[in-house]
Fold this protein.
Amino acid sequence: MNLSPELGKLRDEIKAYALEYGLDPFETIFEILDFDQINEVASYGGFPTRYPHWNFGMEYEHLKKSYAYGLHKIYEMVINTDPSYAYLMENNALVDQKIVIAHVYGHTDFFKNNQWFSATNRKMMDGMANHGTIIRRYAEKYGYEKVEGFLDICLSIDDMIDYHSLFIKRHAIAKREPVEEDEDDDSEVSIKLRSKDYMDGFVNPPDFVEDQKRKLAERRTQAMKFPEHPEKDLLMFLIDHAPLENWQKVVLSIIRDESYYFAPQRVTKIMNEGWASYWHSTIMTEKCLKDSELVDYADHHSGTLGTSPGTLNPYKLGIELWKDIEDRWNKGKFGKEYEDCDDMDFRKNWDKHVGLGRQKIFEVRRVANDITMIDNYLTKEFCESHKLFAYKYNDVTGMYEISDRDFRAIKEKLLFQLTNSGQPIIHVIDGNFKNRGELYLYHKHEGIDLDVEYAKDTLQNVYAIWKRTCHLETKMSDRGKLFSFDGQDHIELNITSSL
Amino acid sequence: MVAKIEQDHSRFKQIVRGKIKKELKKYITQGELIGRKGKNIVSIPVPRIDLPRFRFDPHQTGGVGQGDGDVGTALGPGNPQDGSGKAGDSPGSHLLEVEITLEELAQILGEELELPNVEPRGKKNIVTEKDRYTGISRSGPESLRHFKRTYKEALRRQIISGTYNYDDPIIVPIREDKRFRSWKVSHQPESNAVIIYMMDVSGSMGPEQKDIVRLESFWIDTWLRSQYNHIELRYIVHDAVAKEVDHDTFFYIREGGGTKISSAYKLASKMILEQFLPQDWNIYLFHFSDGDNWDGGDTAECVSILEKDLLQKINLFCYGQVKSAYGSGDFLYGLEEAFPEDPRLITSKINTKDEIYDSIKAFLGKGR
């Protein structure tokens, strides 16, 4: 549903303010949805047409219950596309809609200007729809259960991508063109796709499959080590080298593609939410807010930024960091002189009236991600004034408890949580282990053990794709371990690390 | 817009209920949302299916949080990171467990046990009368005047009689013009039911047995409530003597005399006679006992009461026999012998909690 004339005017007004402040958002199209529709769209991550899967059903269930028990209202939903699409909820009060519109412009400005998003597909609305269509067609052809089962396996490893390769431009998996030869035979034959890069290999039927078989056989005889360097992008590796049917390769590619699309959002969550909150707060309080709306505004705003004891609210952490950076750069609280100053009182009252705050935050929003932002701008004073703490699990009491208020410990913990999007770092070391085509994965242990049960089950899923024995090397309680799955049994060995 | 969420949503629900994809069963956890209902803080169960992935042992990761507290202060057993990070009030110490709504529960029960919907017997529907103000009358109190009709009447009269002035249109109604709202009686059939629970509370019925009875009664109650608009519940406990009690007493009482089941049946019969005329009510009787009735011919007496009196008047009579350490369980056979094929009488044995399921299915599975 389109915006009413009243809301349309508001949107134009707020957009004008945003531009005045220097924001540079994508053209943004706002639509109104009712409560149920917005929950549906939110369940699909903001894209109304996605592939079918129960995971989205689960999201929907949680959102519905959350809303029904007054837990949170989805105020806004905006996606990283050009033009951007944003959804407002139908019966929200006017003041709420104002906040949301301002907030949305903050987000779309961020999507457009933060460098980590530079390689994302801005036409993903179509992309998602295509993915959905392709998968639905497979479901019709091969049976829904079969396709869903394979999706479950893919989703189990969908985070095994390389977060350092976010700048590689990825092409959407193009719409399926009708194949000229026998349509029914595409389990062996690849689909003709108008595509480039890594999808190139799929273009040649039926040689491709023969080619693969030949390559694997060659490798086995040559005992050549591949990959030449440890490969972080497990999904890519499997797409290229695992004995999958063609439709499976396409499905796995789709999952991988979507994972890379969302990756920049994952690594900038704190910054992005903070940025949007900062701007809705600025625009509202300096420009837009009517006196009569003050209380409702405060209510909404504090609701978004509220924290339950213990939890870290990314909106709040984000906005406070931005305000801190702006404040410091306005006052000149940076640079060698400031860093070297030991006197607490002096530091507190430091104010050189430099006025570089606004400029600085625009710069940071362009280049940083959550890790670099925390690394560069989280200060001791900040931790103290915001009462941050590190916590850990206590085996004895069975509870989580505060473990440290030391600035360095907090920063380290936060950075660790953010590194690799909070996932363990695992590489493919060998695709021809023991010269038997077995797959060897290596977990770079950095002090925290893996969840064993989950790891074993995930390894089993990898086996379902690789179809030969899979190994995972890791450490538990400082002891080297090798977990293996051969299709029947899980084996656990103690080893000394191979690397 | 989107209509596909229904498919995904129902697939999710089916997996969680264990109906399909049983291999995912081990990944189902009961998460919890903290919310509010009115002024109470409530705990809302939300099932989650967490597909396996390579992840850290959650007990080793810990994290960063925000708030007051010294080193060593406990944050609770759940990982604070699992929260959405959005706003929520501090849980405090009083959490109410939110039920799935009882309708949902009844629905699940119905699906699981494949219970047919109850068909209340035709003549047992009470017809209730409702007054609805859809009529018009020429007389009545001012509070019921119908403005538009009155106005129209007055306007018509004035135009006809020529007293209507187009330049100065004032309408003055006279008594004959006035119209008033009046009511019409509308009839709505409503189905009503009364459930009479009877329980043996003689010495041989221990807390375990009472637990079984309580559980089973709860489910039966939930199911029947979803089938009827208006339901009455009555509770009778008996040992050698029967008496009516309230809900709480029913489950907690501890008598401990001998056992004379006929006392309960007689009391039930009396209740029906006095309060629940069979032509107005759908009557359900449930009796739970360990089956150790008084030897002196009491079982025969019970059979007689059932045959001549109770079974004529009720929709359904169910007897559930629990197992106790001392009971002989003869009563069950007595009933089965006397009424081998009667659709109005159903018996079942409920030795353990696991058998409650089958018992309910037996009792309610016929749609009576």
In short: DSSP finds ten helices and twelve strands in chain B. Chain B has three domains: 5-62+71-98, 127-187, 192-364. Chain B touches chain A through 65 residues (CB under 8 Å). Residues 5-62+71-98 of chain B form one domain.
